[in-house]
Amino acid sequence: MPYARVNELHRHIGESVTVRGWVTTTRSSGKIAFVVLRDGSGYLQAVFSKRDVPDATWARVAELSLETSVAVTGVVRADARATGGHELTATDVEVLGASPDFPISPKEHGSTFLFEHRHLWLRSRRQVAIAKVRNEVVQAIRDFFYERDFVLVDTPILTGSIGEEAGNLFSTDYFDLGKAYLAQTGQLYVEAAAAALGKVYCFGPTFRAEKSKTRRHLTEFWMVEPEVAWNDSDANMRLQEEFIAAIVARVLDRRLEELKELERDTAPLERVVGPFPRISYTDAVAKLNALGSDMEWGNDLGGDDETLLAREYDRPIFVYNYPKGVKAFYMKENPEDPRTVLNNDCLAPEGYGEIIGGSQREDDHDRLLARIVAQGLDPEAYRWYLDLRKYGTFVHSGFGLGVERTIAWICGNPHIRESIAFPRQIHRLYP
RNA sequence: UCCCGAGUAGCUCAGUUGGUUAGAGCAGCUGACUGUUAAUCAGCGGGUCGGGGGUUCGAGUCCCUCCUCGGGAGCCA
User: Fold this and answer.
1) How confident is the model at residue A190 (pLDDT cuts 50, 70, 90)?
2) Which fold has domain A118-419?
3) Backbone torsion region of residue A350, taken as left when φ is above 0, otherwise alpha when ψ lies between -120 and 50, otherwise beta
4) Is the distance between the Cβ of A170 and the closest atom of strand B smaller than 7 Å?
């Protein structure tokens, strides 16, 4: 008997096939039983009629419990009553792995319970849909850069020199060389690679030891960081807008079924086309003050301010040229207003907040050194980074996109933690 | 670290100004039912009320303390 995956069944109508998977739901009406299977490619309802199967088979069907792994054999039938459009008129079932007392019932559960059972929760329809959207987002990212002739450069996770400040980094002993830190960004390394390859990006996990307890933060999350030689801040924003629009369009094109499963209203996603509104930080402050916020020029935008501002628009927005004091040392000073730097954040609509932080980098050796010293950092640790400005310095820009934040936004999830299979949070290291 | 909230059955929760034997729905088990989509109907079992201490004739309920978890702030993607 040939094996088939659920998403191949349209090629087997009228044939007898065997499908292997896990029991998602069972319903019985005494003489007819419905068993819904999941095999990863889709869901399939197998229908057993007591009249048509041997007593021993019927007895096995009656005992099936949630998440039992089974091989079900039957004839494929197109049936409009079935979700997915196909049904199996089942003739046999073989239990491959029993599943007594599966902890997650189809009823409601609290988030603590579900994350404690994350390894099993991944099997639920919702989580399967999110995993597929994530896969699409990741593939869209890789294809976007590959098609534009970027080179992927994998940056180290263990690092000695440090991205911004040491306070929020995880550290570990590193042989005889003292402390090593888990990377919180690949950016500095990718700047070095940009001088070798022109257009590059890194894509991997990053770590923040900050004790964040919000719906927008994870301690381990994935970030994609392109870096482009000769791009100024303006070109950097154009790349970001093209990038985000491409990701959203790709998901709408290929994962509509999953978005439907997630009950995501796709209308706001369909509006995600460039150009995105651009507001200077200074204008943003004035606008926020007019909207009732009491924030003052010189402070960073808080979460509430970001939400307030983004709500004024129907697509992602850029806020650019922040005060130097609230931003990292490597951002290039704005020649037209030295109080500010040539950077931007991209704020997602619908209250999802910052999904990108980007900037043009300081390419002048002496100015960069001065910023490092002014921030109390050790210039020796940044010697190699300063070298990039000593040997053929170049205008360059880049940004970091938070993958889980982007997925949460596209899926319409209220919390970031469902966007990754096994989220690491301050109170969660299991499973 | 700070502010707010929660902890009662396997799960989600209710539990009144302190009152006698702590409840419901779902899940589980038993039975009925040939088209169910969280099926439905009938019946049955199920409790260290987060831990410790205190007040009281009497505490799930009030007080103190500790623990755990959730949300938010800060930090940022």
Assistant:
1) very high
2) BirA Bifunctional Protein; domain 2 (3.30.930)
3) left
4) no
